Amino acid sequence: MAKTVDVENLSIYYGSFLAVEDVTMTIRAQQVTALIGPSGCGKSTFLRSINRMHEVIPGARVEGRLALDGRDLYGPGVDPVGVRRQVGMVFQRPNPFPTMSIYENVVAGMKLNNRKASKPVLDELVEMSLRGANLWKEVKDRLDKPGSGLSGGQQQRLCIARAIAVQPDVLLMDEPCSALDPISTLAIEDLINELKTEYTIVIVTHNMQQAARVSNYTGFFNIEGTGKPGRLVEMDETRTIFSHPAEKATEDYVSGRFG
Amino acid sequence: MTSTTDAATGRPTARPVLQVGDRVFVNLTRGAGVLLLVVLAGVAVFLIAEAVPALIAPSDELPGGLTLIAYIAPLVFGTILSAAIALVVATPLGVGVALFISHYAPLRIAQPLAYLVDLLAAVPSIVYGLWGAAVLGPASVGLATWLNEWFGWLPFFAGPVSATGRTMLVAGLVLAVMILPIITAVSREVFRQTPKLHEEAALALGATRWEMIRMAVLPFGRSGVISGAMLGLGRALGETMAVAIVLSVSGGVTLNLISSGNPSTIAANIALQFPESSGLAVNTLIASGLVLFVITLLVNAAARAIVNRRREFSGAN
Amino acid sequence: MSTGIGNARREADTELATGPLPSITSPVRPLPDGSPWGILGTTAVVVGGGTLLLGHGVGLAVTLTAVVYAAAMYGVARVVEGPRKAMDRLVTILVTAAFLVALAPLVSVVATVVANGVARFDVEFFTYSMRGVVGAGGGAYHAVLGTLIITAIAAVLSIPVGLLTAVYLVEYGRGKLGRAITFFVDVMTGVPSIVAGLFAFALFALFFGPGVRMGFMGSVALCVLMIPVVVRSTEELLKIVPNELREAAYALGVPKWRTITKVVIPTSVAGIASGVTLAIARVVGETAPLLIAVGITTGVNLNPFDGRMATLPVFSYYSYVAPGVPREPFLDRAWTAALVLIILVMALNLLARLVARAFAPKTN
N or C, which end of chain A has less CB nearby within 10 Å? Predict the structure, then answer.
């Protein structure tokens, strides 16, 4: 299922404002790629451009090429809604649907798209997804309870279950642990390690230890000043980025001398 | 609403594919919005169309043989006078009630109390009319007599005192009751939004509760109170039934608030005359309605402008 | 520049510091806790009781008591606690009094309407029309039906238009059209109800001639009043649905329109339903537009597209201002109609609260 994402000379605009300039990178399948960098450097914007979520803001557009296993996601006739079914996303703050039970939250991707499935099929999907998100044991006896009644960490894993229930190829995570306590964070990090066997994972994080712990590759984004576009400074194996990066700016950032 | 070309650079970008469902839904909601604009335009156009015959007719064919301006002017006067009384009475009262709910009442009962005041707004205007004529009017005679005795030298209380109490004063008071909940609700909202830091800073300086309110709450809420009062004014100007039932009308322009001879208001006059009118009289009434429409429009626009300016300055949203 | 401002600030500070700040060394003996109540009780007995004994009304007694109490509290506090504390106490009394004054009409209105309306609050009132009734008896069966029919049509027309407009404004309308609609919704909110009635008349008179009256005309007039209320309240509620929920749905590959209909609206349905109920409550008691557009009849007319209909508010109005002979039965019916209206409006308000609670998203 996991697929490779190829990014070539991608620039992201909001209206006439250039937010991210000229990113070229390859996001490898079945690996965890971390995006780090100071606030406002465009790493979240870039992440959201991978499943075209940034288009929620009017006037957003891109130049360049972004391909999923060779298929251009911005090609003519490509439906952004379809892109998002292939590239799932988990957000900063857990956001289960408050009107739905745990069960309904997991199958939300199918239910909201009016796709019919028999009860046993749905049951199996729910169990599989919740097991995949390491949440099954904790919630299997209260699937009909509202999802908003769970703890923050459980809610975030519920959101991950909801995302993988759609069976995407790529999973984007936008600072998934920033609203969680250390124990829940650990649970999510363990989960990321397990998920990478099946999915291509891209994670934005402010926490460099986290990037070092969970990722195989790391991309460092930077920005020269306010109003300037963010750019990808360098990308390499996580080990390399944190031990001897090619760029001075990267070294300053990962060693805590900057940002 | 995703733009397909970038205005600044003129470069075309790939047009996002919209699903059929999305396209239908956008047009459905947009259609509803446009329908609303059409309705409002219809209000203006049809009122003008029906008012035109009165505008161009010679004055001796109009009701009372007056020119249109001479017919409407006393009504405008009565409308403004009754609304002014309501505003003068209801604004301080509304601010007081809002302060009571936001800063004086115990927290636990503040919400139910606010709800109680909101209920005042729910009572239909016809009920206020009946109440004004049957209860407040007769009850006001004593007050009017006293006012006439002591303040008869003021034009407002010159008398002679109406025996039924169906006076401009009572009409204004009934309107005051009706707009009180609006003023209270808007003021209460802004008072509640006073930054806690300002309040605590004032209290930390050793201010009493009143001094804190004067230093922190009232300056912060001033524009809110003004816009609430304007919204209330808009409502009072257009209120029909309460005035139509309470006020005993004789036409003419007078400042005397407690006698039985009062100018009518535009709205009340329409309600009273319309069912029995035909021909040009109807057109004349519609012309007066148009005037009322414009007046309330201006007042409400002013209120909104104040609210919006405040929103910009306060940095909320 | 900046130092200049700094200096000015410092100067102001010193001025403040040397100004007449409350001295903490001056002995302030607060009034004992119960004393305001003691003074209030004494004033009530002496002033209020005295006024009543002299044969004046309750209103005057209460007013005088309040005035004397406020003056007495201010005086006593000024002597014992100093002017600042006295002012504080005075304002407390004034603010509390403002609240009580505001409640007085509500109590009085409800009491009056109940007292006068209960006489004819009987089965006959709800089962008979006024056809052929000249004196006592008869009822408002026809008016109740008329009100229900006209309000229902108005609601059926207004609610979808209002909801869809609000959805457009919140989810799509960022351009010129959106701003224009927002502005004109504000304008519509301020349209006086009588003007709405004139509009309906002007519109229908164009097609059916100047003598036209029908229930549907009344519904159209009520729509003009109801739509902006529905739009406003729905808009507020859609705005507070967190964007995160919309994004969560988009990220699952859900198209925008399904996100709106299946996530955004269900999340805020409690508030929307309650807002719609309040909008109905607002128009159900409207009199002026119906007076103009619908008129009144004595008999039952169930066809909103054919001729005059009776409605409760207009029924109440005509019974009161143009009673027959003898007057009493007409006035009684007017008050009972008012009572029914109040009950209807209060019930809708209550319903709105219950609806809000019943549909609210459950959190455990």
Answer: N
| End position of a domain, from candidates C98, C119, C140 | C119
Which residue range(s) make up the domain with C77?
24-119
Residue of B nearest to A74 (CA): B14
What's the pLDDT tens digit per position in B112-130?
Answer: 888 888 888 889 999 999 9
- For residue A75, which residues of chain B lie inside 8 Å, CB to CB? 14
Closest CB to A15 among B1, B6, B16? B6
Same domain, C196 and C289: yes
Average pLDDT, chain A: 89
Task: For an interface test with C, give the residue of A55, A81, A83, A170 to mutate (most C CBs within 10 A).
Answer: A81
Answer whether residue B12 is part of any domain.
no
Quick check: is B41 in a domain?
no
Q: Is residue C14 part of a domain?
A: no
Q: Which residue among C99, C119, C139 closes a domain?
A: C119
CB B228 within 8 A of CB B186: yes
In this structure, are C62 and C98 located in the same domain?
A: yes
The reply to whether C29 and C51 lie within a common domain is yes
The complex scores an ipTM of 0.89
Contact C227 B292 (CB under 8 A): no
Chain C interface disruption, residue of B126, B188, B284, most C CBs within 10 A = B126
Residues of chain C with pLDDT under 50: 1-19, 363-364
Number of domains in chain C: 2
Q: Can you give the pLDDT at residue C28?
A: 58
List of chain B residues whose C-beta atoms are within 8 Å of the C-beta of residue A55: 2, 16
Per-residue CA distances from B172 to B109, B129, B166 (Å): 31, 12, 11
Say which amino acid occupies B66.
Answer: L
Question: Which residues of chain C does A166 touch, with a Cβ-Cβ cutoff of 8 Å?
Answer: 252-253
Residue B74 resides in a domain: yes
Tokens found for residue C196: 């709405």
Tell me: do C109 and C146 sit in the same domain: no
Test mutation, A91, A97, A171, chain C, max C CBs within 10 A: A97
CA atoms of A44 and A48, how far apart (whole Å): 6
**CATH number of the domain residue B170 falls in:** 1.10.3720.10
C150 with C37, same domain: the answer is no
Nearest CA in chain A to C361: A99
Q: Is residue C171, in this structure, part of any structural domain at all?
A: yes
Residues of A whose CB is below 8 A from B12: none
Q: Which residues of C touch B39 (CB under 8 A)?
A: 188, 223-224, 227
Asked whether residue B65 carries a pLDDT value surpassing 50, the answer given is yes
Q: Note whether C191 contacts B296, CB cutoff 8 Å.
A: yes
pTM: 0.85
* Chain B residue numbers touching C163 (CB-CB < 8 A): 32
pLDDT value, residue A35:
94
Question: CB of C363 within 8 Å of any CB in chain A?
Answer: yes
Q: Give alpha helix (H) positions in chain C.
A: 2-18, 35-43, 49-53, 58-81, 83-117, 123-127, 141-167, 176-189, 193-208, 215-239, 243-251, 256-259, 265-284, 288-293, 312-321, 327-359
Q: Please work out, in degrees rounded to the nearest 5, the angle formed at the alpha carbon of residue C245 by the alpha carbons of C244 and C250.
A: 95
Task: Give domain status of residue B152, yes or no.
Answer: yes
Q: Which amino acid is at C39?
A: I
**Gap between the Cα atoms of C325 and C335, Å rounded:** 17
CATH number at residue C296: 1.10.3720.10
**Residue C358 Cα, gap to closest chain A Cα (Å):** 12
A48 touches chain C (CB under 8 A): no
A 10 A CB-CB count for A48 gives 22
Are residues C134 and C95 part of one domain? no
Structurally, how many domains does chain B consist of? 1
For B211-234, how does the pLDDT look when each residue is reduced to its tens digit (9 = 90+)?
A: 898 888 888 888 888 888 988 998
pLDDT at B315 exceeding the cut of 50: no
Search chain A and give the residue with CA nearest C248: A95
Q: Average pLDDT in the B50-69 region?
A: 80
Task: Kindly state whether residue C13 falls inside one of the protein's structural domains.
Answer: no
Q: Is pLDDT above 60 for A197?
A: yes
Neighbours of A166 (CB within 10 A): 22
